[in-house]
Design a protein that fits this description.
heterodimer; A: mainly beta; Rossmann fold; Neuraminidase; 2 domains; seven-stranded mixed β-sheet; five-stranded antiparallel β-sheet; 4 helices; globular; B: alpha+beta; 60s Ribosomal Protein L30, Chain: A; four-stranded mixed β-sheet; 4 strands; 52% helix; elongated
């Protein structure tokens, strides 16, 4: 299954805008749950003159398999191939040992318009758990498939999936003419990789705007770090901070109108909030230590950040105005680069013990820290918008790769490039562009 | 070594004072030393007060200070911007060169090893650059001529993942 999945991702990605095959991320599950929920996904029927370029059911199946929480019933065990409600015989699926069944149709409505319908059933209770119809253009078929995957994930596990999302990351390729860095955006399955920035110098800290349309990031230009905001689909690019000293660590406020960032223009790295409309800067910290890596709480009231005011980097929290600073982390030698889960109850961070750097999750309520990775150079963790998975960067045999882990530590995946390094991942919010009908 | 340190300091001071007074002779002095690398030329120079008292040992330092020092980086301990005595001596040699060449600007580019987060390391690299800048200013170099920047952990000179690579990468580069 995994081999098949990787092959599938590779061949379907050839058409992407991306410049080389090496730039395709392949994803493999390195650890799944002991017992996944057995699901049967019947290939969707296709009606119309033009065959859609994407196999919706196959994309749904790949999503569910990749999550590590489902086991897919092999097609040779199917006793029937229903596409419509009236064609479902539940007994067939009990024999096939499926707990859930997914059927659907893809119908061409006009030259470039498709109607996708799917139904999800509880095989034992013999009733429908979900039924949704989408009307979309062909370039949205993959997004529809990912959204169907999210619905199935939610109905069967109680938690929404994070398939209909994207990831941003930075690749580093060492070619004959030197090093090239690329800021890329891809679907959560690695497909549709698009390079939105190419540079001879390093790019870091991409951060998605809350509406998913823009990315703030740090790029070096004229030997200096600067903060930019760039549209994900359009070419717009705006210099946000290019002050003397360092300009770094951009973080969007939950409503998307302000950016917290680190500037050393006044002599020392301090945290500022920039109002993106008025361009007014407000300084939140003032001292002689390093304060950086701000991140907003989902309710917009607090900012957590990294500071070495106690000697080594630790996580602190303050009110957005800069008042009431309190230390949040006490375990480990140091803690850094924290960010919140969507419900505001957890933060993920980089925690170090004995010179090794791991990804951790801290429950804010009781300050319990769970270490989720056992590799030694892990960094840049971010939560999926459902708060159930964390995407981060690590190294495998000296090469930079991405990894994800469920916040309970049970499911793990690895995202690799054929050549070169991949690093600085950031998980997007949910795509909001789909029209759907229940 | 300690003696040498004071002599160089004295020299830096003397050159600095001289630079304020009669410019031309001071500019000539290092050129003389540069052209003659042998030890006894030390006393043949400018005729400033300190010139007479220079020992053989220090002459080489003068030559080094007169030219641009060949070593262009200083290194640091993990998560530290403390300057050790070896680095201090090198920074003083650069200070001497800068004092002799008042039109020369210097960029101080701080770097960190790959351990720790990238943004923290960006800040740490700058702190290292600022630490070197502070010493140069204490040695009389105008802060306007000195710019501290940081590349964090983004431009390592050694790409292995071990202590010897990390030690090389924790550095401030002198960018003339």
């Amino acid at each position: 299954m995994f081999k098949h999945l990787i092959y599938y991702l590779l061949i379907t990605s050839v058409g992407a805008w991306s410049t080389s095959v090496h730039a395709v991320l392949t994803i493999e599950i390195t650890q799944g749950t002991d017992v996944g929920i057995p699901v049967a996904i019947v290939p969707f029927s296709v009606e119309g003159q033009v065959k859609p370029v994407h196999d919706v059911a196959a994309i749904v199946a790949a999503d569910l398999a990749r999550s590590g929480r489902f086991s897919l019933i092999p097609k040779q065990d199917f006793l029937s191939t229903p596409h419509r409600n009236s064609e479902v015989i539940f007994k067939d699926w009990r024999i096939a040992k499926a707990e859930a069944l997914v059927i659907g149709t893809v119908r061409q409505r006009s030259a470039n318009q498709f109607e996708v319908t799917f139904r999800l059933y509880d095989v034992f209770r013999e009733h429908q758990l979900a039924g949704i119809r989408y009307s979309v253009s062909s370039d949205k078929l993959r997004a529809v498939a990912h959204q169907i995957g999210d619905v199935i994930h939610e109905k069967l596990t109680g938690e929404r999936g994070a398939f209909n999302t994207r990831i941003a990351y930075v690749t580093k390729e060492d070619g004959p003419t030197g090093i090239t860095y690329k800021l890329q955006v891809a679907d959560s399955d690695g497909y549709n990789a698009v390079t939105i920035l190419k540079s001879r110098e390093s790019i870091l800290s991409p951060a998605w705007s809350p509406d998913g349309t823009k990315i703030a990031y740090v790029a070096f230009e004229q030997r200096q770090s600067k903060v930019f905001i760039q549209g994900v689909t359009d070419e717009s690019r705006e210099l946000i901070a290019g002050f003397p000293g360092i300009n770094g660590a951009p973080a969007w406020s939950p409503e998307g109108r302000r950016l917290a960032l680190t500037l050393s223009k006044d002599g020392n790295p301090e945290i500022y909030v920039l109002d993106l409309d008025t361009k007014r800067l407000q300084r939140l910290t003032k001292n002689r230590v390093i304060d950086t890596e701000p991140a907003w709480s989902p309710d917009g009231r607090d900012i957590i950040f990294t500071s070495d005011r106690a000697g080594k980097p630790q996580i602190y929290r303050m009110k957005v105005g800069g008042r009431r600073i309190e230390r949040v982390t006490f375990e480990g030698d140091s803690n850094a680069r924290a960010s919140y889960s969507a419900d505001g109850e957890m933060i993920t961070l980089v925690t170090s013990f004995q010179g090794k750097y791991h990804i951790g999750v801290l429950r804010l309520k009781d300050k319990v820290l769970q270490v989720l990775s056992d590799t030694s150079l892990d960094e840049s963790p971010s939560f999926a918008p459902n708060g159930r998975m964390i995407l981060y960067a690590t190294a495998v045999r000296g090469r930079g790769v991405l990894a994800s882990v469920s916040s309970d530590g049970r499911v793990r995946q690895l995202y690799k490039l054929e050549e070169g390094d991949v690093r600085e991942p950031a998980w997007s919010p949910y795509n909001r562009e789909l029209a759907l009908k229940e | 070594m300690k003696n040498l340190y004071y002599i160089v300091l004295a020299l830096v001071f003397a050159v600095g004072v001289a630079a304020c007074g009669g410019g031309a002779s001071v500019k000539d002095a290092p050129v003389d030393e540069q052209s003659t690398s042998s030890a006894e030329t030390g006393t043949a120079d400018s005729g400033s007060a300190t010139g007479e008292s220079i020992s053989e040992e220090s002459t080489q330092m003068v030559a080094m200070a007169g030219e641009r020092p060949t070593v262009m980086r200083v290194h640091f301990e993990f998560d530290s911007s403390a300057i050790d005595s070896e680095s201090q001596a090198l920074i003083e040699a650069h200070a001497a060169y800068l004092a002799d060449n008042p039109d020369v600007l210097l960029g101080l580019e701080g770097h960190a090893d790959e351990r720790g987060t990238r943004e923290y390391n960006l800040a740490l690299g700058e702190r290292r650059g600022q630490a070197v800048r502070r010493i140069l200013r204490l040695l009389g170099i105008d802060g306007q001529r000195l710019t501290a920047t940081s590349y964090g952990e983004e431009n390592p000179i050694a790409t292995e993942h071990n202590e010897s690579a990390w030690r090389l990468n924790r550095r401030v580069e002198f960018m003339y």
